[in-house]
């Protein structure tokens, strides 16, 4: 009873704050998303980059309030307070839903979140935005009935994830490989990292894992999760990015690595093949990884030259088209 009362009081405070902020705002877009402080997952990072790009274009964005000036509303997956939006939604306005998942194939369990996303999609939105063809097709396959909409891939903030300088190191130096994950969900590639911990030849490969994982690192270098600017620096210090997650619809860490200029060795799962394209090599079992790292390392310039990564400017404009907001 006490916890419900506290939750209700918090909501009332947010409603009051949202209405107050809306009165003084000239924002053209309202974004409903509950941000967490960094270092956090990819959705938070992408939406920060998207907002920053819109603001560079002269488009003000209001977060978790609905000013009269707002021409459209972007809501993010299930990561917003729906009761807050219900209380502040007082007029006809275009709403676009950036959807995720399906989370049950990504997380490896079904806790009802995908059904909640579908319900929110039907209640609020005029259109959907999917992050990958994989995400759209899997949502269709599982019958969630989401509203149609385009696939718009995420993009990284290039003011942070600036290009790596220099070529692949020559000589007999070990190939520098990096992987990153903010989440410690085992589906982020725990089985692969455990295999690498036991089997990767340190004379051939210098491996760094950044983030969280449900394992102890003894042979592989481990750095806890870091903010984006520090991650960008670490990426630039390496040669190849490795991603091992299962059913990941649109991995921000892959996009950030590609943006820096790292070719990828990736698990053939989820949206990875779409994102990487010809800029890397895919594996089905961890035993394939050492040879693939050698292959990409020996032909580094070829693979790096195949990197095709979305620009945040073009992604921001694609979102504006769906929102029906003119630049």
Automatic annotation (TrEMBL):
The alphabetical list of record keywords is:
Transferase
The yes or no answer to whether the keyword Transferase is present is yes
SUPFAM superfamilies tied to this protein: UDP-Glycosyltransferase/glycogen phosphorylase
Q: Which CDD domains match?
A: GT4_PimA-like
Give GO terms: molecular function aspect only.
glycosyltransferase activity
Name this protein carries in UniProt:
Glycosyltransferase family 4 protein
